[in-house]
């Protein structure tokens, strides 16, 4: 089942659940379970010596190819898992691959999982939050603003489920 953005769900998402994260704070997150959403966010973590457990990216930044991340990922993960996902949607492919990623990482904290999105990864933080456990960190980029970080807990996971229920099932 896929989900498509609605005006009601967009209101929830625009309330931004995350708090700002500065680049000089990234290195201090080493050793925690981390999920990054977006090319610049993932690049910033790798550049600062922090290898996220799960990385969502599309190799595009501001609609332009982002080859720097492509090269960096070669040193971090052996395989990339490709999924299709349209802008403003959460596809079945994205949900299933997210489930696989979290299952593998939960089995071994040494696992690193890269999900390359063909299309747009803009809403990948939502399934990531739902699938995460308490104290996992989900970091995403907000265009023109910078990085935002969410510390997962039951309250935030419930809020995301409520948001998904406001989206249109397609």
Overall description:
The chain has 170 residues and is an alpha/beta fold. It has one domain (3-21, 31-169). It has helices at 7-14, 39-47, 67-73, 92-107, 125-131, 154-165; strands spanning 3-4, 19-21, 34-37, 54-57, 60-61, 64-65, 80-85, 89-90, 113-119, 137-142, 146-151, 168-169. The strands form 3 sheets. The protein has a 7-stranded mixed β-sheet, with helices on both faces. A 3-stranded antiparallel β-sheet has the order 8-1-12. A two-stranded antiparallel sheet has the order 5-6. Strand 10 (137-142) and strand 11 form a beta hairpin. It is globular and about 40 Å long. The model has no long low-confidence stretch (mean pLDDT 94).
User: What is the number of E strands?
Assistant: 12
Radius of gyration over all CA atoms, rounded: 15 Å
Compute the number of helices.
6
What separation lies between the terminal Cα atoms?
A: 7 Å
Counted up, domains total: 1
Helix content: 25-40%
The biggest beta sheet reads: 7 strands, mixed
On the 0 to 100 scale, the average pLDDT is 94
Q: Could you list the spans in which at least 5 consecutive residues all have pLDDT below 50?
A: none
Give the ordered list of helices and strands: EHEEHEEEHEEHEHEEHE
Approximate shape: globular
Helix/strand-derived class?
alpha/beta
Strand content: 25-35%
Strands in their spatial order, largest beta sheet: 2-11-10-3-4-9-7
Summarize the model shown.
This protein is an alpha/beta fold and about 170 residues long. The protein has helices at about 5-15, 40-45, 65-75, 90-105, 125-130, 155-165, and strands at about 5, 20, 35, 55, 60, 65, 80-85, 90, 115-120, 135-140, 145-150, 170.
């Amino acid at each position: 089942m896929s989900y498509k953005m609605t005006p009601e769900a967009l209101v929830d998402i625009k309330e931004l659940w995350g708090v700002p994260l500065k680049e000089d704070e990234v290195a201090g997150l080493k050793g925690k379970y981390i999920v990054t959403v977006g090319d610049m966010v993932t690049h910033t973590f790798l550049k600062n010596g922090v290898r996220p457990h799960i990385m969502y990216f599309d190799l595009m930044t501001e609609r332009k190819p982002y080859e720097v991340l492509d090269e960096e990922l070669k040193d971090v993960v052996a395989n990339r898992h490709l999924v299709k996902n349209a802008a403003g949607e959460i596809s079945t492919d994205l949900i299933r691959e997210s489930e696989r990623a979290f299952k593998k990482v939960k089995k071994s904290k040494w696992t690193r999982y890269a999900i390359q999105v063909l299309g747009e990864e803009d809403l990948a933080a939502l399934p990531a939050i739902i699938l995460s456990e308490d104290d996992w960190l989900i970091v995403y980029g907000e265009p023109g603003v910078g990085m935002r970080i969410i510390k997962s807990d039951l309250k935030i996971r419930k809020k995301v489920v409520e948001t998904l229920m406001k989206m249109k099932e397609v």
